[in-house]
Design brief:
homodimer; alpha/beta; six-stranded parallel beta sheet; DNA-binding
Chain lengths: ~325, ~325
DNA sequence: TTGTACGCGTTATCAC
DNA sequence: GTGATAACGCGTACAA
């Protein structure tokens, strides 16, 4: 049995002493500069390290290099399947680059986001990734700082230059509107996320613009700003369907909303799509299995992680952006 | 405009110089020892810090205190809703204690788990939380080390003492078997997770024991060890239903499996529960909305995070354990 | 109430 | 190919 139990972790000094070399050599071994170390020395050091149960301290390393290998991902709502998928794909991508991911949840709360940004900066992270960021002074300060920042799915406010990964939301909104028009529907509703999010704004803008250009009168389109949860969708669905003249087709800010509306419709005996057409957004993984009826805009959530990583690796002052493709998945709800 | 742009982050020294005090005083201000600082000095320091955009470096702090405020959560499969819920609830709970969560995914791969454990120890984390851990020598070494470890949903191998959060899986298996028997079903199948997981083993043991005690012959029970995914459930479902004498009731290792089986049954025109009864496990959040037909064992996934935190805070050498309650959610699939 | 001085573990630089 | 050494940012014991 090694004696590595019940003592504080071994350090480079311990390994150096044990293997009869200097700390510099030990460091060289563990930073991969093995070509500058004699093979025999290399083996001696490795052996001693194993013996002592030595694992290099990221803390010491980070202090010396003035940065950690941690990437902080801040999401608005981790219970949302889309956020979860982005987190999963990002964690996988980061691991290939030797980076760890800290996950934080704002709960869509601006103050909480700002606190999390403070905490994140305290970690001196390799980068901060913001999914669905909320525009606050603190956020702008972060974007101005030396900290690497990547915005996902929400563009930084004009004037803030920073890498971006997302889709063309306005085009997506237009595609849905066009689809509704092609089907011949006349009265519409859109239940969208907060206007503070450029993603929500973009979809709303594209949807409304396409309808307007096709001569749909503005009073035929109900707009509802909503949380993006199943509960909210259910609530709004009940309200919409109890109106004297309910909408014929509804475009949802995400699939969660769509699930809620569908339930509201089912409970009232409203046929989908016979009486009400529903279009979601995101195309969550479970759809194929549990909601094979849902027409929705498919976003390649699992491609977001690799895209973010490519931006992180793309040179120092990268201001690049990655626009990922979307597509309309046609099923039976429209 | 403050001049905090384009320079390296401010340190205690900068703040000390700017506010005309010593670094010790600055440190005292930011570690909450404000009662040992004159109110006027306090304000001066805070002002200077704001001016400089100073955020205390967790790195320096961690080095000094020989530990970070990071908790590493290692999960087998983040795409699983149960894992996701545990992660979410843990992140929330940890934040209240000023801790950050690093999330890693083993993909059910033992080697990868061991690598992640190495990485985790390098971070000198406050604690490592293992959900569905795989028993390896490396894991045992971790449990023996000074690193705080909490096992979730899987008991450490006998001889390894460590805090545990989970449910009574054997009792859960029995409850499902009893339910099947009460409904009068005769031929059974259980599609369970890897026997390497004590959680899977426990459910299997309880299920089989209860059936055996009730006089069900062993050859009336099909056992299938499987991945816990929708795809695997679908595959096994097709296979089971194509048999000459298919099972009448199937107990699934988790809800994902159940979704897959349900789809396989639907595609073949097999009625649920008329021809096949299905019982899941976990009761994912989406069930109420998208699978309101699924009878399943409800696990309070969102209570796991707080439970883990309570163990972390429960004294130094806590070897406590938290057994959370489960219940059978009866719906229409049985 | 405040300041001085040290050490935490690592790596880059320089000298040999 | 190897070693000695100086930082990196912070918290605290001790001194004033």
């Amino acid at each position: 049995m090694g004696g590595a139990v019940n003592r504080k972790p071994a350090t480079v000094f311990d390994v150096a002493r044990e293997s009869g070399v200097s700390t510099a050599t030990v460091s060289r071994v563990f930073t991969g500069k093995t070509d500058r170390v004699a093979p025999e020395t290399l083996e001696r050091v490795r052996h001693a390290a194993r013996q002592l149960g030595y694992t290099p301290s990221e803390i010491g390393r980070s202090l010396r290099l003035a940065t950690t290998r941690i990437v902080v991902l801040i999401v608005p709502d981790a219970t949302n399947d889309f956020c979860a998928d982005v987190a999963i794909s990002l964690e996988q991508a980061l691991k290939t680059a030797g980076l760890s991911m800290v996950l934080c949840n704002t709960g869509e709360d601006a103050d909480r986001q700002d606190e999390l940004i403070d905490d994140a900066e305290g970690l001196r992270p390799h980068a901060v990734i913001l999914l669905g960021a909320i525009d606050t002074p603190r956020l702008r300060a972060l974007a101005r700082s030396k900290t690497r920042v990547v915005f996902v799915n929400r563009r930084p406010s004009p004037g803030v230059k920073a890498p971006f990964v997302g889709i063309d939301n306005e085009a997506a909104g237009r595609v849905v509107a066009r689809h509704f028009l092609d089907r011949g529907y006349a009265r519409f509703a859109i239940i969208h996320g907060s206007r503070r999010y450029s993603a929500s704004r973009g979809r709303l803008t594209g949807f409304l613009a396409c309808l307007a250009e096709s001569g749909v009168p503005a009073d035929s389109v109900t707009q509802i700003e909503s949380e993006l949860t199943m509960e909210a969708g259910y609530r709004h669905g009940r309200e919409l369907l109890s109106r004297a003249s309910p909408p014929r087709a509804v475009f949802c800010g995400n699939d969660m909303i769509a699930y809620g509306i569908h339930r509201a419709a089912t409970e009232r005996g409203v046929g989908v799509p016979a009486d009400l057409a529903i279009c979601g957004f995101d195309d969550n993984r479970v759809n194929e299995w549990l909601a094979p009826w849902l027409t929705t805009v498919r976003i390649p959530a699992l491609d977001f992680g690799p895209a973010v990583l490519s931006l992180l690796q793309g040179g120092e002052a990268a201001e690049g952006e990655v626009i990922l493709p979307f597509s309309l998945t046609l099923r039976h709800s429209t």
